[in-house]
Each structure stands twice: as structure tokens, then as C-alpha cells.
Design brief:
Elements (H helix, E strand, L loop, with lengths): L6 E4 L13 H14 L4 E3 L11 H15 L5 E5 L4 H14 L3 E4 L9 H13 L5 E5 L1 H4 L5 H10 L3 E6 L5 H10 L4 E4 L5 H6 L4 E4 L6 H12 L3 H15 L7 H12 L15 H16 L12
Parallel strand pairs: 1-8, 2-3, 3-4, 4-5, 5-6, 6-7, 7-8
Helix pairs in contact: 1-2, 1-9, 3-4, 4-6, 9-10, 11-12
């Protein structure tokens, strides 16, 4: 499969039954909605996928289900977020053996590695596989920043490293990285509330969260923004922003799953230690979702711009 790091790539939630088993039927239903909307790839096993609570067998099941549904039309990308370098290497090899077409790679978890240690960790994984790699740069949530100098070292020694999920929440980093690396490093925004802004500043794509509930709206914002149809993109984005803000919260999984229920693309089931929202916070989130659903816009014919 020939593809590049661009377009909208959903960070998919994992669907569970009320008995805490994988709900692969509901997972596949969501994947079909994503593909119908025009996403360019599927990312599994990230924070939104509750990966830290999944067994290796469950990750395999989700990967194989996504690959079967994608059927070679778009890539399936597996997230790697491990504590030990050897575990990250093993996870990368397992993803490759299952047939995944790419990896999203976080810095070491829990231990706050130095720049040298972080680069060595990335390089060890990159050296273990031929799969294309997207580096997830999220110092706000994970405490380690991958600096431009670190990217320079990675790009010079790891040919499979080709993209960044830019989640520093500093919009000027899109331009800063483009100025330094040109097209050697593809840039995908990873912050929903900076989605359109990043696209207008030249980002190649968007690793999105609320896309799990609103795939067509997310892809429309991306496609219209890329096509220079700013007024149309901005109109959808203004409606979308209160929902997108549900993504920048420690309870983003619960928030987005509530939105998936509203659009018929998921369930509220999470895996402990996460628990469904309750009380005033649940009502606050539901209020945002109900208002958005009541005002949900009619979308223009955006697919012609993909």
C-alpha cells in the first residue's frame, strides 16, 4: 500500500460491552462511518482507545478487525506507548506481523527520559521495523517534548520516521517545523481545538478525537480548509468548537463516548479505572452535546476537495 501522512486520521475509541468485553460489532460500525466520511487512515490503541487497559490479544483483535474493514483502502496505524524499550520493540513487531501499515510512537511512559534517552528509544523501535512512524509530541500531557533538534537527529538516522502528531498546543510550531524540515517531516495536528488553525497554517493532516462521533464534520473542516474555502470551513468549525473542547480534558474518553452515543456510533461503556461521567459534570457535557445536535449544520459537498 502506498500512502502518506495526510488527511484526517481518527484516534479511534475502543468499544466495550456492559460485561467489559470488546464490542467488535460496534467498533466496526464506527470504522465504516469513518471511511464513509473520507478519513485517510485509522489509528488504534491510543489514549482514546484506552490502550493501557487492553490485553495484547485485545489489541490484536482490534487491529485485525480494522484491517479487515479497511481492506487495503486506507492504512491501519497502531499506537505504541510502553514503559520499556524492549516492550515497545515487541509491540512494533507484533503490529507489523498483524499487518498494520504504520505506527504512532510515544516517548517512554512514566519515566521522564532525557532528550538522548528519548531519541535512543525512538531509534530502537524504528530500527526494529520497516513500518512508517508518526512521532507523537505531546509534552503537555506526557511531560517530554520532542524538540526540532531531536527531530533533526531522528530524520537523519531513521528513514521510517516521517511525521509528527503536533500536540504542543503552540500553533507557531507548525510553521517552525515547516521552515526547518520542509516536506521531510509531515505535520499532523493532534489538538482538536487547533484543528482548523493548524490546517490553515499548512499542517498536512489532523489526528482527531471528536471525529469518532462526528466523522463527516471533521473531514469537511479539513477538506474545505485545505481547499481555501475558509468561510465554509469556519462556519462548521464555529459550531464544532464547544464539542472539540471536550477533547482537551482528562475525561476525554468519557466525553467523546457520550458524543458517540448521541450520533449512534458508540456506547458509553469505558473500562475501569475509568468510570462513566455522573452528576453535574455529566449534565454539563450532555448539555454541550444536546445543543450541538440541535444545531448540527448541513454540510456542503466537501468530498470533491479531498
Amino acid at each position: 500500500m502506498e500512502w502518506t501522512w495526510q488527511g484526517v486520521m481518527p484516534a479511534l475509541t475502543t468499544k466495550f460491552t456492559d460485561s467489559d468485553e470488546l464490542d467488535t460489532g460496534l467498533f466496526v460500525k464506527n470504522v465504516r462511518a469513518q471511511m464513509a466520511a473520507g478519513v485517510s487512515g485509522l489509528i488504534l490503541g491510543g489514549t482514546l482507545g484506552e490502550a493501557s487497559t487492553l490485553t495484547e490479544k485485545e489489541k490484536d483483535t482490534l487491529t485485525l478487525a480494522a484491517l479487515k474493514e479497511a481492506d487495503g483502502r486506507i492504512p491501519v496505524i497502531v499506537n505504541i506507548a510502553e514503559q520499556r524499550t524492549s516492550d515497545a520493540v515487541q509491540a512494533a513487531r507484533r503490529a507489523a506481523s498483524n499487518g498494520a501499515q504504520g505506527l504512532m510512537l510515544l516517548p517512554p511512559m512514566r519515566y521522564k527520559a532525557t532528550s538522548r534517552e528519548t531519541v535512543a528509544y525512538f531509534r530502537a523501535v524504528a530500527d526494529s521495523t520497516d513500518l512508517p512512524i508518526l512521532i507523537y509530541n505531546n509534552p503537555v500531557d506526557y511531560g517530554i517534548e520532542v524538540t526540532p533538534d531531536m527531530f533533526e537527529e531522528l530524520l537523519s538516522t531513521c528513514p521510517t520516521v516521517g511525521a509528527v502528531k503536533e500536540s504542543t498546543r503552540e500553533i507557531s510550531n507548525v510553521t517552525r517545523l515547516r521552515n526547518r524540515f520542509g516536506d521531510r517531516l509531515r505535520i499532523l495536528t493532534g489538538v482538536d481545538t487547533l484543528g482548523l488553525e493548524s490546517i490553515l497554517m499548512g499542517a498536512d493532516g489532523w489526528v482527531a478525537g471528536l471525529v469518532c462521533a462526528y466523522p463527516a464534520e471533521t473531514v469537511a473542516v479539513y477538506a474545505l480548509g485545505k481547499a481555501g474555502r475558509i468561510a465554509e470551513a469556519r462556519s462548521i468549525y464555529q459550531w464544532f468548537l464547544p464539542l472539540l473542547e471536550l477533547d482537551i480534558s482528562p475525561q476525554l474518553v468519557q466525553n467523546i463516548k457520550l458524543a458517540e452515543v448521541a450520533t449512534g456510533l458508540g456506547s458509553e461503556q469505558v473500562r475501569p479505572p475509568r468510570l462513566p461521567l455522573e452528576g453535574a459534570e455529566r449534565e454539563r457535557v450532555m448539555g454541550i452535546i444536546r445543543k450541538a445536535m440541535a444545531q448540527r449544520p448541513e454540510l456542503p459537498q466537501y468530498k470533491q476537495y479531498l
